[in-house]
Amino acid sequence: MGGRLTRVFRTFNVESRARREISKEKPTPAPRHWPPRGDAAADSPEIKEEIVRKDDRLLTLLKDVYVESRDPPVRVKDGGGEHLPCKQEEKRLTKLGHLGALDVKKVSKGKISIVEALTLLNNHKLHPQMWTAEKIAAEYSLELKDVTSLLEFFIPFTVQEFPKETKKAIKS
Question: Which portions of the chain have biased composition (kind: Basic and acidic residues) (predicted)?
Answer without folding.
Answer: 17-27
